[in-house]
Amino acid sequence: xxxxxxxxxxxxxxxxxxxxxxxxxxxxxxxxxxxxxxxxxxxxxxxxxxxxxxxxxxxxxxxxxxxxxxxxxxxxxxxxxxxxxxxxxxxxxxxxxxxxxxxxxxxxxxxxxxxxxxxxxxxxxxxxxxxxxxxxxxxxxxxxxxxxxxxxxxxxxxxxxxxxxxxxxxxxxxxxxxxxxxxxxxxxxxxxxxxxxxxxxxxxxxxxxxxxxxxxxxxxxxxxxxxxxxxxxxxxxxxxxxxxxxxxxxxxxxxxxxxxxxxxxxxxxxxxxxxxxxxxxxxxxxxxxxxxxxxxxxxxxxxxxx
Length: 306
Ligand SMILES: [Zn+2]
Hints:
Blueprint: H1 2-23, E1 37-43, H2 48-53, H3 57-65, E2 67-73, H4 80-89, H5 93-96, H6 117-123, E3 128-131, E4 148-150, H7 159-173, E5 177-182, H8 184-192, H9 197-219, E6 226-231, H10 246-249, E7 250-256, E8 264-265, H11 277-286
Bound molecules: zinc ion.
């Protein structure tokens, strides 16, 4: 009888220990413990001056409440996939080697030569997500490296669909890191021109979708522990964008949330140049992930109160 009781106790203890292990996967120590979640918003083709001229309360609210620069720079290629890969790997295209900007066939999908911060965070035990409006983003979601992935089967989908998928994931999984890409403003830029009234009108629509994502953070009760980073893959001019054109290379870089200096213009530090690779490095810093020596990006710690 005593043996049976002991066995039962031992069994219960093992179950409890296993349960504990599953619930509290080891997480790295973070420099700002209040920051438990990071949301990256990439608005495709968002040129800083077009953003400032647009009637976009959600994005303007982030500028008002957060730290920002309208003089950040994307890669010298200034096209979506190589630039977003730099944003998410913290290295320049020469190191990640994603020089293509097209969808790959599923059977022959190619991936960056270095891990994404999504992959690094997943490996560290975090729940991660990628929701993108263009199919070519499959290159940034190597199987096993991101917990939740939405990438359209067709070339692209709407900002509305992107927001709906992101909202579902935020409410059900409360990811520690989610990257959300809105394709709308780039599509209108190619059709009607950068800075056109039509693109300004599209930004209003995209902003409504961003507001829905922010509201989901409220419903999931993680808004107070989430840093939101708003940026772009490139700007544009005429009906296009590309290399060696500053109107294509300048991007906004806005960060808001716990620990962020409110209403702080990062250009107050004349020596600080924010580049798109710094987004990945900043995410690693916030989530307590290692920053390998090969990184080109550095964390933008000047945006945070320390
Ligand atoms: Zn484009």
